[in-house]
Amino acid sequence: MKELVILGSTGSIGTQAIEVAEREGFRITALTAGSNSKLLEAQARKLKPLVVALADENAAADLKVRLRDTDIKVLSGTKGVSEAAAGSGDIVLNSIVGIAGLLPTLAAIDNGKTIALANKETLVTGGEIVNRRAKEKDVKILPVDSEHSAIFQSLQGAPKGSLKKILLTASGGPFYNKTKKELQNVTVNDALKHPNWSMGAKITIDSATLMNKGLEVIEAVHLFGLDASKIEVLVHRQSILHSAVELTDGAVIAQLGTPDMRLPIQYALTYPARSQNAFERLSLTDIGTLTFEKPDIDTFRCLPLCIEAIAKGGLYPTAVNGANEEAVRLFLEGKIKFLKIAELVETALATAENKNDFTVEDILYTDKMAREAVLNAIN
What we know:
Shape: globular
Number of helices: 17
Number of strands: 11
Order of helices and strands: EHEHEHEHEHEHEHEHHHHEEEHHHHHH
Distance between the termini: 54 Å
Low-confidence stretches: none
């Protein structure tokens, strides 16, 4: 029986990962969350892991009291989450939101765990360091994001060096075809109405700004070793073709399926096997038509800003990511307007200090400075 650690178990990906893991017969040895102690307690009582951890120390203290009738160890803070990631388990599925996922990923890699990666910020901010350590430890990084899983699946059997281009699909989010004028006064509720996927608030806002696609371009650079110039973003409203690859001979290979995150989760957990399941099957005749368009990069500025950041390299991707995380928080709290998010990301990119040879400490410092730049810009 394989052992599994789930980081971010109370979120959308985490709860679906539990469903898949139970069906596939995994022993779940550790669960972590940010501050949702109520749901984490329920998961812990059902699954009986060895360890649980909450990043919020006050929530962890409360959970420790409520789990005192069990043998489950309760950890707290960033160190506690990283300790849980490094503990007993063959695979660590990281579905933490934001840069908070970086240190636990590194802790898991340093302890030789296979990484099922749904936390794109791990590679956006620390891709070079993460890949280097994974190579040193002979650790596999298996993508869970639907787009990167599609690329990974499409490359199975392709000879090494045959990848010429990545076709990365985007739904276009809730504001597809909107103009800047139409976006000036959109609300948080408007931005959270994703047409195809049910996701957490932060990633749904990122989908609305196309920031999520920009971060995925950066992630794809680190996962598949292509320059950003060889990654083409296509707006595909149906969310059926999850991404594709073009090979050196001109063949284009894609992975299609219904919009269901359980499939890429399952593939990462069972790779290279493919397990039976009861997920909804795709009917192309029911879908009828698949459409593809170029994204509107003049209106949705976050996408080209991310591409500019990875082209510059170094700490610039960390700066745009940190600025975006802070700006999205402010938008969700009603403190800035929707279009201000891209403006603040652009400010952070323009003011960031760069290093091409950097450490984890440099990443965390750059993230902090980017957040401060955002706050300074609105005060």
